[in-house]
Design brief:
Length: 244
């Protein structure tokens, strides 16, 4: 029954709209996973994908974890093993965001500041149409689902704070400080950077919700991001902690 329902939803195009949070093409599967790890990743993606389709169709607050489990053909316990919180079924790109930011800062070029590396990452995600770039065909359905749910809005705010904390640690590490206890400069720089990126994403989301074509939003978002990072470079001497 679940398979027939899933096929019907995909025929209507809902699966494409669900791509923002469905776990499709996550960076974890880089070809180096063991068979067991790959099976676990596929199970995680299937659970998140089915959850996303249900949330988009009926609203986040109107779907139970038990219904997600039935659609994904797993037990409720299995769902919670992969996603301790219901909100993370929909916002399942949060761990990937931490991973991408960490990789960008730690693997940057010898002459590249952390801020420059984050500029490059942000523009690349946008150009690729990556879900974490925030702009793409059907993404307005994702944003609307988040806005319609107080629980998702709260989790999204919390996720921004978590990413800011991660970035503060990375900047402290780049500056030769203890990443577990970032200093004031690292914390302030992280707060400014994340606030700038968040403001740009909010503007893009608003345009998509208003019905602007994704291509036009992407072009405008690129300019907004470039100007945002230009302002951050002026505000953060030497590109911030770890940049000198």
């Amino acid at each position: 029954m679940a398979k027939r329902e899933r096929a019907g939803r995909e025929e209507t195009g809902s699966a494409g709209e669900a791509g923002y949070a469905a776990g499709v093409g996550h960076a974890e599967d880089d070809g180096r996973l063991t068979l067991r790890e790959r099976k676990k990743l596929l199970t995680r993606q299937r659970i998140s994908g089915e959850a996303t389709l249900l949330f988009l169709e009926r609203g986040f607050d109107n779907v139970t974890v038990a219904e997600v489990a039935r659609a994904a053909e797993v037990s409720t316990m299995t769902v919670f093993n992969y996603f301790p919180r219901k909100e993370d079924l929909f916002l399942d790109r949060i761990p990937e965001g931490h991973e991408l930011i960490t990789r960008a800062v730690r693997d940057r070029g010898a002459d590249e500041t952390p801020l420059a590396a984050l500029r490059r990452l942000t523009l690349e995600l946008l150009a690729q149409g990556h879900p974490l770039g925030g702009v793409g065909e059907g993404f307005e359905h994702f944003w609307r689902t988040v806005l319609d749910s107080p629980a998702l809005r709260a989790r999204a705010r919390e996720a921004v704070e978590e990413i800011e904390h991660t970035l503060a640690g990375l900047l402290a590490e780049a500056a030769g400080e203890d990443p577990g206890r970032p200093g004031r400069d690292s914390r302030l720089a992280a707060a400014l950077i994340i606030a700038g990126i968040r403001a740009a994403h909010v503007e893009a989301a608003g345009r998509q919700l208003a019905g602007d074509p994704a291509g036009e939003v992407t072009a405008g978002q690129e300019e907004v991001l470039r100007r945002t990072f230009d302002a951050l470079e002026r505000a953060l001497p030497d590109g911030g902690p770890g940049g000198s």
